[in-house]
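Final report, closing paragraph on structural work. Over the funding period we assembled a curated collection of sequence-structure pairs, and we close with a single example.
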Amino acid sequence: MFSISLNLEDWSEIIAAARKTIIIYNPFAGKMGTKGLKRLSTAAEILREAGHETWLVPTQGPGTAGAIARRSIADGAELILAAGGDGTINEIAAGVAFSDVPLGILPAGTANVLANELGLGSSIEHAATALAACVPRRISLGRLQCVNGSERTRLFLLMAGIGLDAKIVYNLSLPLKARFGKLAYWVGGFSLIGRDLDEFEVLVDGRRVNCSFALISKVRNYGGDLEIAQNISLLDDRFEVVLFEGRSSYRFLGYLARVAVRKLTGVRGISLLRATQVCLPGTADRRVYIQVDGEYAGHIPASVEIVPDALTLLVPEPYLRRRSGAES
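Its predicted structure, as stored:
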């Protein structure tokens, strides 16, 4: 297993020498298909030419990627690459979590939030070529625990959304998503215009806020197009929590305009907080949904917390430099 105390040059050598490399891919990901599989094969060949002993392993359906990752590590994998959308990457990350094996990303999904966040773009081949220049960084993950009888626990890399966006995810037509990609989410969102939204309570560091949409995020990128949490990084050990108040769906059109121009500070009805733990008490009269990394994950009551030192992620150096520039 790898030590976490090496310098950047040593890490580059280790990544280049990671002979047993397993690419776990979702054959049904948004950008896969016949052409996508050809691009994935090209990416695998790029890695082989760089010295990696590379195996392509398909997922067998929803919920199977994490077990494949764990089995691969038990069999001696030195590097795991996730090829798929954010949902597939979420599963694979959960399987790699708490090991020392690095996780790299090959974007192949509908939104590719993580790939966009890291600046990897949407090309599988480009991401494979850029792999040697990435730097392993130990990061925290989020952990969602639903306490509505099933005691479901789920790790996440990116974000948890509660209320409005999770309702869109829950009701999303899979054939519509397959045909139109990200546009399907916008169609689902605008279908709610004119309706009252469900409100729920959020507890953050002793503060109580009633809202209709809560975003608990470790990334700035949202859906590949927008930035809602605007002062956060995967390298942080806290969440940025963004709370949107009000039941009127028309009010959210104004919020959307503010998000589009990245001006949320000081807006009435929007709270921007930093926290390591968020509590979501239950509601007796209605079900309020939760999504993590773009996939339905349950409903409140629930809690969300930071899990520090949970995963080794391959991060492009420009992302590290942007983070250093933001802190200076």
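Residues 3 and 28 are 35 Å apart (CA to CA). The domain at 142-308 is CATH 2.60.200.40 (Tumour Suppressor Smad4). We thank the funder for supporting this effort.
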